[in-house]
Design goal:
Bound molecules: the ligand C[C@H](O)[C@H](O)[C@H]1CNC2=NC(N)=NC(=O)C2=N1
Structural class: alpha+beta
GO molecular function: 4-alpha-hydroxytetrahydrobiopterin dehydratase activity
Radius of gyration: 13 Å
Pfam families: Pterin_4a
Protein name: Putative pterin-4-alpha-carbinolamine dehydratase
Number of strands: 4
GO biological process, one term: tetrahydrobiopterin biosynthetic process
Catalytic activity: (4aS,6R)-4a-hydroxy-L-erythro-5,6,7,8-tetrahydrobiopterin = (6R)-L-erythro-6,7-dihydrobiopterin + H2O
Largest sheet: 4 strands, antiparallel
CATH superfamily: Transcriptional coactivator/pterin dehydratase
CATH class: Alpha Beta
Low-confidence stretches: none
Number of helices: 3
Length: 100
């Protein structure tokens, strides 16, 4: 399904409903750093998030060191942010909430 790139107004209202996510310069992506109590918890989060990402066919750019996971979301096919990025962001927040 072709995803439409969101306009600034739609991005603003979507980000207002999220906690801890920030809009990157150029409005091309959103980012969040998740912190956990241990590497095992961080990796558990990544495992949960990976399964959701695969189901959505929408994949994060992420970076992990020990208990920290830095996540960046965008839709490369659309060259910007789409509904799918916000869907995955919410699913990742949920996955993180199930960890600690
Ligand atoms: C061919 C395949 O469906 C596409 O490349 C999908 C896969 N996962 C994706 N993930 C993300 N984040 N953006 C995309 O545009 C995207 N496209």
């Amino acid at each position: 399904m072709k995803q439409e790139k969101l306009a600034r107004s739609a991005i603003d209202s979507q980000i207002a409903g999220l906690a801890g996510w920030s809009l990157d310069e150029g409005l091309g992506s959103i980012s969040k750093t998740f912190k956990f109590a241990s590497f095992v918890e961080a990796f558990g989060f990544m495992t949960k998030a990976a399964l959701v990402a695969e189901k959505l066919n929408h994949h994060p750019e992420w970076f992990n060191v020990y208990s920290r996971v830095e996540v960046k979301l965008n839709t490369h096919d659309a060259g910007g942010l789409t509904e799918l990025d916000f869907k995955l962001a919410k699913a990742m927040d949920k996955a993180a909430g199930q960890i600690d």
